[in-house]
């Protein structure tokens, strides 16, 4: 049974709307827990104002932030899935849904050519929106996740070396978060995603996925990596900064780490912050055309994290 391409576009448009307007429950709960522990008066005021803004956006059905970020997609395809007109049609549907969402939600048209500043006013252009693909065995559905993430700041990369060890990782995370807070390069309290290992491009990719595609409270299945996630979160909240860089104690809502096997001589690391308006939504389109919506992307499956030659 082929998934109707019209259902793909319908789902993509709907998750664009949900991501722009609705705060995922896991992030909202994480912010509420952080607010209880926040020691700074100004950060508490900022968080209170943001929560009010989220509620107003939900009631009015309009975007929660004036900067609606750079819409992008993550598509997980079941190995047994079949789509009407094939996967070129899927990509076309995602681009069309982006253009439609920009007009109807509306989203701010943020995409321009880097040199000529050409703006089609629909967030579609060369290599935009980004679409990343993954696959899942023994499934006949397609998962589509959209993430609306800012495209200017809140990201850094460094090539560490094996001798730097865990202490080097901590130093990089502290240096980066302090710089972000002082210079206004992040919109915290944020979910911090860390990519560790892989090649340079994979490292950046893993860090962004760790920030945007895992829910607050989710821990890496490797116990030692999970322990490091909690340690780095505690470290990030000990530097004396809270919401929007004001003096406080709540800079990190959660910390997620994803790893990739890397060159024996290096230990690349990237850090990404998913801002105070953490915007994501997922649709699962079944073979019969039924659509289910959720806020947990469920991107990092055991198959995604496999290490061996065979699955």
TrEMBL record:
Q: Which InterPro entries match?
A: Class-I_Fumarase/Tartrate_DH, Fe-S_hydro-lyase_TtdA-typ_cat
Fe-S hydro-lyase tartrate dehydratase alpha-type catalytic domain sequence ranges: 10-283
Top EC class, one word: lyase
- A single Pfam family it belongs to is Fumerase
A Gene Ontology molecular function term for this protein is: metal ion binding
Which superkingdom heads the taxonomic lineage of this protein's source? Bacteria
Its EC number is: 4.2.1.32
Keywords on record: 4Fe-4S, Iron, Iron-sulfur, Lyase, Metal-binding
> What family classification does the UniProt entry report for this protein?
Belongs to the class-I fumarase family.
Return the protein name. L(+)-tartrate dehydratase subunit alpha
> Which species does this protein come from?
Variovorax paradoxus
The coding gene here is: ttdA
């Amino acid at each position: 049974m082929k998934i109707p391409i019209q259902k793909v576009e319908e789902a993509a448009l709907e998750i664009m709307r949900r991501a722009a307007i609705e705060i995922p429950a896991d992030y909202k709960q994480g912010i509420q827990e952080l607010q209880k522990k926040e020691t700074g008066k100004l950060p508490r005021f900022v968080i209170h104002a943001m929560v009010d803004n989220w509620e107003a956006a939900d009631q009015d059905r309009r975007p929660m932030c004036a900067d609606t970020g750079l819409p992008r997609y993550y598509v997980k395809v079941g190995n047994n899935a079949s789509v009407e007109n094939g996967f070129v049609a899927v990509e076309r549907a995602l681009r069309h849904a982006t253009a439609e969402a920009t007009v109807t939600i509306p989203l701010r048209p943020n995409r321009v050519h880097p040199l000529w500043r050409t703006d089609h006013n629909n967030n579609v252009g060369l290599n935009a929106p980004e679409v990343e693909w993954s696959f899942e065995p023994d499934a006949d559905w397609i998962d589509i996740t959209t993430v609306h993430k800012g495209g200017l700041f809140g990201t850094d990369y460094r090539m560490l070396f094996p001798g730097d060890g865990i202490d080097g990782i901590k130093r990089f995370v502290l240096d980066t978060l302090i710089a972000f807070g002082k210079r206004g390069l992040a919109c915290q309290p944020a979910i911090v995603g860390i990519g560790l290992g892989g090649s340079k491009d994979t490292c950046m990719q893993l860090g962004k996925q760790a920030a945007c595609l895992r829910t607050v409270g989710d821990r890496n299945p490797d116990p030692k990596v999970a322990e490091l996630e909690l340690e780095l979160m505690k470290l990030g909240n000990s530097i004396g900064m809270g919401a929007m860089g004001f003096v406080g104690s709540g800079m990190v809502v959660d910390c997620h780490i994803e790893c990739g096997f890397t060159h024996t001589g290096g230990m690349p690391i990237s850090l990404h912050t998913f801002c105070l308006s953490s915007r994501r939504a997922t649709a699962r389109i079944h073979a019969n055309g039924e659509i289910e919506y959720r806020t947990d992307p469920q991107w990092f499956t055991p198959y995604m994290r496999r290490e061996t030659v065979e699955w």
